[in-house]
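ok posting inputs for the adenosine-5'-triphosphate job
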Amino acid sequence: MKNVSYIYKSKYQSVEAVKKVNLTINQGKVYAVIGKSGSGKSTLLSMMAGISLPSEGDIFYNGDSVKKLNMEEYRRDKTSVIYQTFNLFPLMTVIENVIYPLELKGMKYKEVKGIAENHLGSVGLDEQYYMRFPNMLSGGERQRVAIARALATGSKLLLADEPTGNLDVANTDVVFKLLTDLAHQDNLAVVIVTHDLAIANKADIVLQMQDGNLQLMEQS
Ligand SMILES: Nc1ncnc2c1ncn2[C@@H]1O[C@H](COP(=O)(O)OP(=O)(O)OP(=O)(O)O)[C@@H](O)[C@H]1O
Ligand SMILES: [Mg+2]
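and the output
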């Protein structure tokens, strides 16, 4: 991100939610983004995800300005996002949730089934879960399905907005370990917005948002 600002503009006011942020995100690392409510964390993440474009400055993905990329492709192929509320498709089974992004890429059900099963296996969910609907899962299991679905995109940039916000301590540890392994073993870039300082302290790099400004924190 080079001098990236984001301004929410409405008829009555404009809010500068992110102010001139400079930041490089590398593969193989876990980044924690901390900061008070309203400090701009989710806004920052949605720009990384290609959900919104910067109002000022520019974002580069492997050297290419997002302003020149096809944003639909960028969102679909280059990034994946997981949320506090899991955001699984409620009317799809577990396996269908994971298959969906693969089908969006134009792959056929037969070829994607095995890939989806692999991703579910890597988050510790076996065939007894495949045909369940999201409401038949615990919170921790739902978030693991969301991670498997994120992996199915094949993207190297995994963005997580409060991924453990609805989880107990044990599930928080499981999910954080999964995300860490994805960075350290599978060489993804993992960015986690979190209020949980215990989680943040275990990240490789801690970034603090303060009223739209981003600051790199020294890790002890
Ligand atoms: N759609 C919007 N229109 C106007 N202002 C907005 C909009 N969305 C967010 N904001 C404002 O932008 C600022 C940053 O919001 P953002 O959601 O990025 O904060 P956050 O750090 O993610 O907070 P939280 O920890 O509560 O999720 C806040 O002042 C917020 O009120
Ligand atoms: Mg937020």
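notes: Residues 156 and 188 are 5 Å apart (CA to CA). Residues 169-184 form the longest helix (16 residues).
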